[in-house]
DNA sequence: AATCCGGACAACCGCCGCCCA
DNA sequence: ATGGGCGGCGGTTGTCCGGAT
């Protein structure tokens, strides 16, 4: 074997990335690409392991990352995809352009899982409101205090994500209820969560698991949700399921 | 004002499968 | 055919921050 040994951890830095490191990584990848993650940190002059660089790039620095709160449509797609695929975050992420598996995984564990749990316990809806957190982007470095940016107008929060090199990766507007910083969510029928799956549909699910993950045209709205799979190839089920459950484009209340 | 606590999310760890020598 | 490196993935942990007390 001629390859270098894996994971030489001596002297490698861990923990939050600094703005300077982000800049180095971004400019290196923009210039040379990332064909070899293991060699990259050494070539770029970073005291990080290749894995750490890869993670930082994929989850944070990539320019095509969509940042900001998940839309209701995105949340519902995650829920439905999770019903079908389980914890296959990367497969779910492949269906949500601009979202990373890590982001979706975090979203699931911090928000969606609890909602589903509450629903399945048949707990009454405590209220009809869902908190919307203000988007606040942090750039982790020694001067972190000065790196958060947030502006608020009367009833909307406009947040800009300034990542490395001052690049604006995403601008997002989070509208809030002007009275109490909550948004009111409509209620939908409990049957939303208990779709009956027929034998035919189950078969379709089984088949779909064996197919390569494909991207479907997701245009930020389920009204624009096109099913590229139809039923011929067995991928139609979950798409149909999503569409059928989307009479309302809002999330249920808990 | 200080402290505590829980939520959110970035980052790390370990495993697995693929690919290459 | 085999063994090891590498990338990718999912689970878990660490850290920060805001709200509550």
Automatic annotation (TrEMBL):
Domain of life: Eukaryota
UniProt feature, compositional bias: Polar residues: 140-150
PROSITE patterns: HTH_MYB, MYB_LIKE
Chain ranges of the Myb-like domain: 9-61, 62-112
CDD domains reported for this sequence: SANT
Sequence ranges of Basic residues compositional bias: 127-137
Compartments it resides in: Nucleus
InterPro entries listed in its UniProt record: Homeodomain-like_sf (IPR009057), Myb_dom (IPR017930), Myb_TF_plants (IPR015495), SANT/Myb (IPR001005)
Main localisation: nucleus
UniProt-annotated stretches for the region Disordered: 116-154
Pfam families: Myb_DNA-binding
Annotated GO CC locations: nucleus
UniProt GO molecular function: DNA binding
Protein keywords: DNA-binding, Nucleus, Transcription, Transcription regulation
SMART domains noted in UniProt: SANT
HTH myb-type domain boundaries: 9-61, 62-116
Protein name: Myb-related transcription factor LBM1
Gene name of the encoded protein: 11428568
């Amino acid at each position: 074997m001629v390859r270098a040994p894996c994971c030489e951890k001596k002297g490698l830095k861990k923990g939050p990335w600094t703005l300077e490191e982000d800049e180095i990584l971004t400019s290196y990848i923009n210039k040379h690409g990332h064909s070899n993650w293991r060699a990259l940190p050494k070539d770029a002059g970073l005291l990080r392991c290749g894995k750490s660089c890869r993670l930082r790039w994929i989850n944070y620095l990539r320019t095509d990352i969509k940042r900001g709160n998940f839309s209701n449509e995105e949340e519902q797609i995650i829920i439905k995809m999770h019903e079908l695929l389980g914890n296959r975050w990367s497969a779910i992420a492949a269906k949500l352009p601009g979202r990373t598996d890590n982001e979706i995984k975090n979203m699931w564990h911090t928000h969606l899982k609890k909602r589903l749990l509450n629903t399945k316990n048949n707990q009454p809806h405590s209220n009809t409101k869902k908190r919307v957190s203000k988007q606040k982007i942090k750039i982790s470095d020694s001067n972190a205090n000065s790196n958060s940016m947030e502006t608020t107008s009367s009833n909307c929060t406009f947040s800009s994500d300034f990542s490395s090199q001052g690049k604006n990766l995403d601008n997002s507007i989070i509208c809030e209820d002007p009275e109490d910083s909550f948004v009111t969510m409509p209620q939908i029928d409990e049957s939303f969560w208990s779709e009956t799956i027929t034998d035919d549909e189950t078969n379709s699910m089984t088949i779909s698991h064996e197919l390569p993950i494909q991207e479907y045209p997701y245009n930020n709205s389920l009204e624009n949700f096109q099913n590229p799979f139809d039923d011929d190839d067995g991928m139609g089920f979950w798409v149909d399921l999503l569409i059928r459950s989307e009479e309302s484009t809002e999330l249920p209340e808990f």
